[in-house]
Amino acid sequence: MRHVLVLPDRNAAEEVAEALTERFGVAEEPQLVRDALAGEDDAEDAQWLVVVEDPDAAHDPARLHDLAAEYEGWREAADGRATGRYERP
Asked: Model-level pTM?
């Protein structure tokens, strides 16, 4: 299973990747990927993806979503839909 966490910026993505190692004990280092929004050339308009390989399906998707939400992000579902987006209060 592959989990994709969507974060608003690189700093958040790096912090989430570090938290994944510390809190979840992921075996492989998570991959960080810049995802430019459609039609945008400005790096400020890019989201960052943290890709977590989970071949044994050991990580709870809800807990991964909660981690991403701590950084104003979310976890993408397997079908590409968001499992829930962070909304500012």
From this structure: 0.80
